[in-house]
Amino acid sequence: MAVRKEASSEISVRKQKVFTGPQIILIIVVTLFSLSCVVPFINVIAVSLSSKSAILRGDVSFWPVEFTTQAYEALFNDASMIRSLFMTVGMTVVYTLIAMFLTILMAYPLTKKRMRGRKFFSFLALFTMYFSGGVVPHYVNMLDLGLYNTIWSLILPAAISTYYMIILKSFFASLPESLEEAATIDGANDFQILIRIYLPLSLASLATITLFYAVFRWNRFDDALYYIQDRNLYPLQLKLYNAIKNTQQVDLTAMQEGSSAVANNISQSIESATIIFATLPILVVYPFVQRYFVAGVTIGAVKG
Questions:
Q1: Inter-helix orientation angle 236-256/79-107, to 10°
Q2: Where are the alpha helices (DSSP H) in 109-193?
Q3: What is the pTM of this model?
Q4: Which of 30, 39, 271, 303 sits at 20 to 30 Å (Cα–Cα) from 226?
């Protein structure tokens, strides 16, 4: 019995994972990189929940000082900010649905060798990744198409990404052709094969690309800066951009008057609260698609 216990203890010791030097270095690098991403966010949260006097004294680091929710109360009492939030959520949902619909309908046919002109259409799609007409032609198109100062100017121009289409196309192409052949023998058409075979097997890729589209639309504000004049149509990120821009203008004015520090710190709590307000919704969505994310980000490496 004693011999067996000693043998089992030796086996358990062998099973214990021993980190090598390169692994320890990798863990340290990943930890430092993670902290570089998390620490600034924690500081923004602390500033948004601290009093103006504490911010003015420079006492706020990673924990709220003289805890207060005045900055968030000011945001929620701003009707335009709440309107921008709901408008941005709705716009992101509509944009993501349209983008995924178009991406699927373009990626799936391009995987079919029997499709005539497949290489030509693939070339047209790839061409747009490297060459663009620029902002001025886009602006003229918005005017000519009647989309200027409408919500559709923020949805339709970027409704499909060639890069994400190629990723989804690569995954579709990696699926066994025997599945399609068996479905064809059973009398299924291309649409039925796509709905009943390809899409159910592509949940990881679809969830990942959906997340990428949603984050892209949620974070973007430059197109609204060019195409939107009606303040009621301002997305949340443009409101945040204007808040930071106004803060910088106040700081510049205060600097000329010799009171830059006071102006900067008083406005910093509102600015930090706006950043959290604009970032939190997309962070809430991410955990629901996280389990698909790891599998989905490597799709492009499966098959070219």
A1: 130
A2: 118-130, 135-144, 162-174, 177-185, 190-193
A3: 0.76
A4: 271
Q: CA end-to-end span of the chain, whole Å? A: 58
58: left (phi over 0), alpha (psi -120 to 50) or beta: left
CA neighbor of 157 nearest in space, from 91, 223, 88, 238: 223
Burial 60-80 (b: 16+ CB within 10 A, else e): beeebbeebeebbeebeeeee
Domain residue limits, the chain: 2-48, 71-301
Which token pair is 221? 């504000």
Q: Is 150 helix (H, G, I), strand (E, B) or coil?
A: coil
Q: Which amino acid is at 224?
A: A
Give the CATH class of 71-301: mainly alpha
